[in-house]
């Protein structure tokens, strides 16, 4: 079976209390998820994006058995989250918020060995695995310092190592690079790419749209508890009819037939806005060749995922 | 299962070692607290400071106070692992809350042992009372039963106070009240009416026998006490198990850890 | 000067607001002396078979002064610690606020907290045991207590200084609390202790605070008991000196001013 994660019509309603005055409160129902469905294929990085409070973490918590849905079902690695939660837990590794989840007075290695053993590894197995993982996530000697001395970046690395301690086929990474400096974030991204090469399937949430676009093969946009769009970033852009900008620098000084602007190097640059970049560019180059123009550089500016996100969320 | 228990014990031990300053501060402060408690009580009857029988009983009572108190704080510590996001990770590893508490409970025993040694030394050097264990075999049996009981008791306690905003307030109060109603201070040294009230507490059949086996003054047949204690431990274990299942079920359903 | 007064009022009013919003905590602190005094009363009466309201009152006042002494001893230490953990202290020190203004403002807040607590508990206790007859004595005892808060503030500063340079405040505060509690004769006569502990108790201000308060309520102001006060004020002065000394050690270590 190609799908390793299947979510069908997931509904989650939370009861909250709306405070009224000092002692009174009114119960209020919040529909956090409203018939959320999607599939994730084996070995892919699938991103779930959406504004704050859209339902990303609730979805991840349901898929990782930390929440029971009010309606709907989900199958993880062939196991039903409601009927076989223990098997699901063995199949997944989860990071929720990197700054939490560890004993601050224990070292990184001690925390990893602890969790490894709770997952059923022997002491030696857990220790060997932990040592390999701290190398993999590039924690190095910091793994032997207590967690209370860790920076957020170190904790993020440790969280990913914790996810991998029992070698699960599926990883749920909830904003793994939030709050990290650019270098640490890049290291985590490289690690995530590396893990998919090793055959892991990853469900990722992030607010960094560039990261989402770079890493994931498919993206789902969730808003107010609904999946409002799903597909590869290219598919989403096409679906929304987002325009590409084509820039072609011409080395001749006098140009007829085309509107130009002055480029960075002082040469005229032709700019065209299109939703079919390949065809438009080929046609333009052929025309320029026929007319005897010399071409300098060619640049295609793609619409960003940020635009996709903004368009979808604002439209809804 | 055993692997998980050992993982929890090692984790507890590593944590215990990492708080060296607390060990030192415990070693310094325990003798002063012993003075404080004994004298605060015996101000009502200062002549009893020279009564060997009363002092022996009081010192063993103090030992059980340390015992109960450390388990109360153990239950309280569950709130910290919840706040630190560790609880969710423990659930993901399919580990029961009582196993988590059990591992740490072994370390509470270390704390109590240190307290016990200080009590023995202080009794001898300052109050001129030599503490002895009258019935060592039953002392160990009753102590193990008390340990098991308080593991489940701490689990129940943790589950009940998990959503309280300032649980330390409740723990602070109960750590004084519970030992009093548990027979930690042997009922023989109380007036009859007060002793009568204490015998209605189930804790009395868990804590009382530990002190009784140490002092040698059993209030009833020790085999009968053993049977009652065993029944209470089993009963507490089943309540703990039931409440834990209920808590996790509610937490998974509502997204927050609280029974209420 | 106006600047210092403004800073002082800002810190003080924030602390008072926090207190107002934690009424439960205040209620708990008031409840504690009753809890402990009834607890020892219960066990003591249970063992001895006799009921002594005078001893209960003696211990109620003792536990109250003990509670406020402990709050007063460790409050600055916790203020510093919490400030460091939450980052609030760095904001405070990034503003041109002198550390002693911070300490004085929090100390005044703590004094008000302590005296309010003493007033409520002491009033209930005095009425319950002596009726209206000793109320004036009780009110006088509040003034006596105020005098002894100054040397306590000195110890408060020393503990705060130690907390700055140590990693775990609780590791320092716990032994200090136990020593103060055991040797100061709060809830039993100091004479029940071995001689060296009696000497230790009599060299700290707490013994004089609690004895003077009790004797003022049950008898009247006794100057014989008040004589060590001028000497005890040295605690206040040495508190400031030691605090500044420890703070300087920290500055040298960390390379930054203040905490």
Characterise the protein shown here.
The complex is a heterotrimer of chains A (316), B (260) and C (259). Chain A contains ten helices and 14 strands. With 316 residues, chain A is an alpha/beta fold. Chain A has two domains: 3-231, P-loop containing nucleotide triphosphate hydrolases (Rossmann fold), CATH 3.40.50; 241-315, no CATH class. In chain A, strand 1 (3-20) and strand 2 (24-41) form a beta hairpin. The mean pLDDT of chain A is 87. Helix content of chain B is 77%, strand content 0%. Chain B has ten helices and no strands. The longest helix of chain B has 33 residues, at 222-254. The radius of gyration of chain B is 19 Å and the shape is globular. Chain C is mainly α and 259 residues long. The mean pLDDT of chain C is 80.
Instruction: Determine the most extensive contact between two protein chains.
Output: B-C, 37 and 42 residues
Global structural class of chain C: mainly alpha
Element order, helices and strands of chain C?
HHHHHHHHHHH
Q: Give the radius of gyration of chain B.
A: 19 Å
Number of domains of chain B: 1
- Amino- and carboxy-terminal Cα gap of chain B: 30 Å
The number of E-state strands of chain C comes to 0
- Helix amount of chain C, in percent? over 70%
Q: What multimeric state do the chains show?
A: heterotrimer
Helicity range of the residues of chain B?
over 70%
> How many distinct domains of chain C?
1
In DSSP terms, counting alpha (H) and pi (I) runs of 4 or more, how many helices of chain C?
11
Q: Give the mean pLDDT of chain B.
A: 85
Quote the beta fraction of chain B: under 5%
Structural class of chain B: mainly alpha
- What number is the mean pLDDT of chain C? 80
Number of helices of chain B: 10
Major β-sheet profile of chain C: none
Range of strand content of chain C = under 5%
Radius of gyration of chain C: 19 Å
Entry keywords:
heterotrimer; A: 316 residues; alpha/beta; Rossmann fold; 2 domains; 14 strands; globular; C: 259 residues; mainly alpha
Write a short abstract of this structure.
The complex is a heterotrimer of chains A (316), B (260) and C (259). Chain A is an alpha/beta fold.
Write the layout of secondary structure elements.
The complex is a heterotrimer of chains A (316), B (260) and C (259).
Chain A (H helix, E strand, L loop, with lengths): L2 E18 L3 E18 L3 E5 L6 H8 L7 E6 L2 E2 L4 H7 E4 L12 H11 L4 H14 L15 H13 L5 E5 L7 H16 L3 E5 L3 H7 L2 E6 L2 E6 L1 H8 L3 E7 L9 E3 L5 E7 L2 H14 L4 E7 L3 H11 L1
Parallel strand pairs in A: 3-8, 3-9, 6-7, 7-8
Antiparallel strand pairs in A: 1-2, 1-4, 4-5, 9-10, 11-13, 11-14, 12-13
Helix pairs in contact in A: 3-4, 4-5, 8-10
Chain B lengths: L1 H17 L1 H23 L9 H32 L2 H7 L4 H29 L10 H26 L5 H14 L11 H7 L5 H12 L6 H33 L6
Helix pairs in contact in B: 1-5, 2-5, 3-5, 3-6, 3-7, 3-9, 5-6, 6-9, 6-10, 9-10
Chain C lengths: L1 H19 L2 H26 L4 H34 L1 H7 L4 H32 L4 H31 L3 H15 L11 H8 L2 H14 L4 H4 L2 H26 L5
């Amino acid at each position: 079976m190609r799908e390793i994660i299947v979510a069908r019509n997931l509904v989650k309603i939370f009861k909250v209390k709306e405070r009224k005055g000092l002692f009174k409160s009114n119960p209020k129902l919040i529909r956090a998820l409203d018939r959320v469905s999607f599939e994730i294929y084996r070995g892919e990085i699938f991103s779930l994006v959406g504004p704050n409070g859209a339902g990303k973490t609730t979805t991840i918590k349901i898929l990782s058995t930390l929440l029971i849905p009010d309606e709907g079902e989900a199958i993880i690695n062939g196991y039903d989250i409601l009927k076989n939660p223990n098997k699901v837990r063995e199949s997944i590794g989860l990071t929720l918020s990197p700054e939490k989840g560890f004993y601050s007075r224990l070292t990184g290695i001690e925390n990893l060995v602890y969790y490894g053993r709770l997952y059923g590894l022997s002491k030696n197995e857990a220790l060997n695995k932990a040592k390999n993982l701290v190398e993999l996530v590039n924690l190095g000697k910091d793994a032997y310092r207590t967690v209370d001395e860790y920076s957020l970046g170190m904790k993020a690395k440790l969280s990913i190592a914790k996810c991998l301690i029992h070698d699960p086929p599926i990883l749920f990474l909830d904003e793994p690079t939030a709050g990290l400096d650019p270098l640490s974030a890049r290291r985590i991204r490289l690690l995530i790419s590396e893990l998919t090469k090793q055959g892991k399937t990853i469900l990722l949430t992030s607010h960094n749209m560039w990261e989402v676009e770079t890493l994931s093969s498919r993206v789902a946009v969730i808003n107010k508890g609904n999946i409002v769009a799903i597909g590869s970033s290219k598919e989403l852009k096409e679906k929304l009819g987002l325009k590409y900008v084509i820039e072609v620098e011409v080395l001749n000084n006098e140009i007829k037939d085309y509107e130009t602007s002055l480029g960075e190097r002082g040469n005229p640059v032709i700019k065209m806005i299109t939703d079919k970049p390949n065809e438009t560019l080929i046609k333009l180059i052929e025309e320029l060749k026929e007319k005897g123009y010399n071409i300098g550089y060619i640049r295609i500016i793609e619409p960003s995922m940020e635009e996709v996100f903004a368009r979808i969320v604002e439209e809804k | 299962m055993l692997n998980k228990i050992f993982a929890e014990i090692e984790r507890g031990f590593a944590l215990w070692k990492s708080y060296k300053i607390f060990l030192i501060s415990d070693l310094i402060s325990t003798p002063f607290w012993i003075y404080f408690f004994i004298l605060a009580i015996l101000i009502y009857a200062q002549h009893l400071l020279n009564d060997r029988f009363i002092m022996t009983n009081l010192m063993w009572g103090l030992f059980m106070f340390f015992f109960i108190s450390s388990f109360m704080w153990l239950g309280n510590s569950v709130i910290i692992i919840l706040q630190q996001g560790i609880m969710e990770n423990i659930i993901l590893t399919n580990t029961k809350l009582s196993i988590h508490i059990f591992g740490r409970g072994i370390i509470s025993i270390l704390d109590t042992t240190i307290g016990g040694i200080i009590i023995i030394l202080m009794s001898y050097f300052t109050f001129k009372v030599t503490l002895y264990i009258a019935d060592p075999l039953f002392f160990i049996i009753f102590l193990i039963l008390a340990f098991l009981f308080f593991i489940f008791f701490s689990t129940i306690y943790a589950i009940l106070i998990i959503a309280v905003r300032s649980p330390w307030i409740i723990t602070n109060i109960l750590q004084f009240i519970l030992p009093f109603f548990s027979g930690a201070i042997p009922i023989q040294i109380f007036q009859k009416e007060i002793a009568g009230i204490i015998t209605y507490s189930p804790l009395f059949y868990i804590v009382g026998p530990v002190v009784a086996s140490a002092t040698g003054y059993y209030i009833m047949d020790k085999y009968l006490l053993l049977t009652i204690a065993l029944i209470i431990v089993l009963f507490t274990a089943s309540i703990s198990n039931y409440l834990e299942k209920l808590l996790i079920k509610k937490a998974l359903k509502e997204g927050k850890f609280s029974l209420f | 000067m106006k600047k210092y007064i403004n800073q002082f009022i800002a810190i003080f009013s924030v602390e008072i607001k926090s207190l107002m919003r934690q009424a439960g905590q205040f209620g708990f602190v008031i409840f504690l002396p009753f809890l402990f005094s009834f607890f020892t009363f219960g066990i003591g009466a249970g063992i001895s078979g006799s009921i002594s309201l005078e001893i209960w009152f003696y211990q109620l006042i003792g536990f109250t002064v003990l509670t406020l002494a402990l709050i007063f001893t460790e409050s600055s230490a916790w203020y510093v610690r919490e400030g460091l953990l939450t980052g609030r202290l760095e904001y405070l020190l990034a503003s041109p606020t002198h550390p002693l203004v911070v300490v004085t403002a929090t100390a005044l807040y703590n004094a008000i907290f302590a005296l309010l607590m003493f007033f409520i508990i002491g009033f209930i206790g005095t009425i319950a045991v002596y009726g209206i007859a000793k109320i004036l004595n009780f009110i006088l005892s509040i003034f006596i207590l105020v005098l002894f808060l100054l040397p306590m503030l000195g110890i408060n500063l020393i503990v705060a200084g130690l907390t700055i340079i140590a990693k775990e405040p609780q590791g320092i505060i716990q032994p200090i609390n136990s020593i103060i509690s055991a040797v100061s004769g709060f809830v039993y006569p100091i004479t029940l202790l071995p001689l060296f502990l009696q000497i230790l108790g009599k060299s700290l201000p707490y013994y004089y605070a609690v004895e003077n308060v009790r004797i003022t309520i049950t008898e009247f102001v006794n100057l014989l008991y008040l004589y060590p006060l001028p000497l005890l004020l040295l605690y206040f002065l040495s508190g400031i000196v030691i605090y500044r000394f420890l703070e300087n050690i920290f500055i040298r270590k960390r390379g930054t001013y203040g905490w």
